[in-house]
Write a structure and sequence with these properties.
homodimer, elongated, 42% helix, DNA-binding, 12 strands, 339 residues, four-stranded parallel beta sheet
Amino acid sequence: MTKPASDQNHTLTLRDVSEASGVSEMTVSRVLRNRGDVSAATRAKVLEASRALGYVPNKIAGALASQRVNLVGVVIPSLSNMVFPEVMTGISETLEGTGLQPVVGVSNYLPDKEESVIYEMLSWRPSGMIIAGLEHTPAAHVMLARAGIPIVEIMDIDGDPIDHAVGISHRRAGRQMAEAIVAAGYRRIAFLGTQMPNDFRAKKRLEGFEETLGRAGLTLVDREFYSGGSALLKGREMTAAVLSRTPETDFLYYSNDMIGAGGLLYCLDESLDVPNKIGLAGFNGVELLDGLPCKLATMDACRLEIGRRAAEIISGTPVTTKVSEFTPKLQFGDTIRTR
Amino acid sequence: MTKPASDQNHTLTLRDVSEASGVSEMTVSRVLRNRGDVSAATRAKVLEASRALGYVPNKIAGALASQRVNLVGVVIPSLSNMVFPEVMTGISETLEGTGLQPVVGVSNYLPDKEESVIYEMLSWRPSGMIIAGLEHTPAAHVMLARAGIPIVEIMDIDGDPIDHAVGISHRRAGRQMAEAIVAAGYRRIAFLGTQMPNDFRAKKRLEGFEETLGRAGLTLVDREFYSGGSALLKGREMTAAVLSRTPETDFLYYSNDMIGAGGLLYCLDESLDVPNKIGLAGFNGVELLDGLPCKLATMDACRLEIGRRAAEIISGTPVTTKVSEFTPKLQFGDTIRTR
DNA sequence: ATCTGTTATGATAGCGCTAACAGTCCCAAT
DNA sequence: ATTGGGACTGTTAGCGCTATCATAACAGAT
């Protein structure tokens, strides 16, 4: 009723196109994939028929027959902070033109969820997998190791990669930030971060941070965690909490830029003397925040580069080392005093 | 000769599990899918063998045989603004437990890219498609209409849906905001937005906005567009530009909250009298910004609800109408004067 | 005229799974 | 004893493609 004569409501197959154009299915297949020799006349005939019918090839059948799937699984913990979209941009950018297509799965920082996402993805037999982090359930680890495809674990390099790792050393990043803070003369340092037992990278940064503090004979004077809600707002609240509980604090180290920005706005509202009486630093280098009245000290996590490199490895660029380390740059901004 | 007992590097199939557990492939398949009657003893045997081998089913073959694919294609223009991740959250949330799995594709606001993403997705024969917007290339339109699966176009309802539409009326949203602004007594209104010829929703909002202005005998006193870069920063710059070019401006209407927030920060820096001498409004209701010193007037785009409803439709919740409209709530915040 | 070699097309046999049906076994009900 | 039916397991035949080999047609080289 909706459609004119020729089309049944059945979904089209190669056979339909082959009948419509008077050649074998094989030839149609060759035309549509641009593979093998087909005369110009035949090619034109087939393309026209295919277009006229509105044929969409069935990749499921194609993949099964050819044992080739042009998909790359990408497993990340979240889409709602600013960091992973940028990694995705790097991946997409690089995959563009290789014929490979990224497919995103989100684990919400839950190892079991990650395992099931990985399982689900592997069951589609992708050509490669890109996964955030080096920590996975044992089952996930085994599946990945057995999959027989390139695996790239991204963001972090502090640990043993299954196949390849591309990222930065978060422990080192934490140490480096601590060194800068201590060198700037701050002594009563507090940490404010997410309450996420499974954010291993934030944890490693804090470890590195405390390690360096320890070597300088310092310990954190306070710490505060949150979960959920608007990061900017939480940053304000946490900062208020820390400063009222531990008024002598002279530096606030945040586990990410969003809460750091919230804290910064709070400090400015309260007319605190930033960065002289109190300093702040975050992590990530989110460009998003560039318009703030005052620039938060942070460390770039090399997200774009990580995405690019991971995609390169998946798409077959030869690599000599299992681990590709990027070096985050510390940006002092306006919230660490320089003396 | 070909394979010793267990470990070649070949990828496992049902046959391997079937041999390892001494039952037919069919029985293994039944166990792994939890379908049909299998004795507890057999089930245990099979599960153990499967686990021991590290078997991951091949969904490609499964899908081809069963003509069922548990995938839902989701096509959105971008991941890097705050709006689509929230829609995704609504979708994932609702799909959870239905056995359906979202697969995301990004079109970058490019119609041709959108078409190719749609084509790519349809070739995997998903159970449904969710697509942002009502505007597509003719080819994409035909493919979707022919696909024989539920199609839900989201975000916008000002137009003709292929199958279902779930969203808000952006034209109406624009009108409503204009009414509020005019009612508050602002008269010299400027628009600041993205330079995106293909952001049809932003365009519709502006149309509705100008329409209402027109009815009140007003026209925009200035307009400014941008593309790329940090939205917050751009908001500042554009606002500075407008206010220096058209100093009599008494209201700034932004096409999104991020640039609006940038503008707001600029006004506060300049100690302008917000909302009395100058008012501001954005669009989207991004929770992200909750921590700002002053609350920007905005309109919630019902992102979460849209995602949920779209997923419900895909997963088979009966619907009576082709179009599900949500009503965005205008939040006055602190940047529109109430008199 | 015969033998290559090249280009264009078709026929056949699966890829790894599941739908649909066909048993088989066992026990309760006749 | 016979029957019927439920519980369980196996057999067969594809799903819609593509790899591979076979075939056909014909150019030029021998």
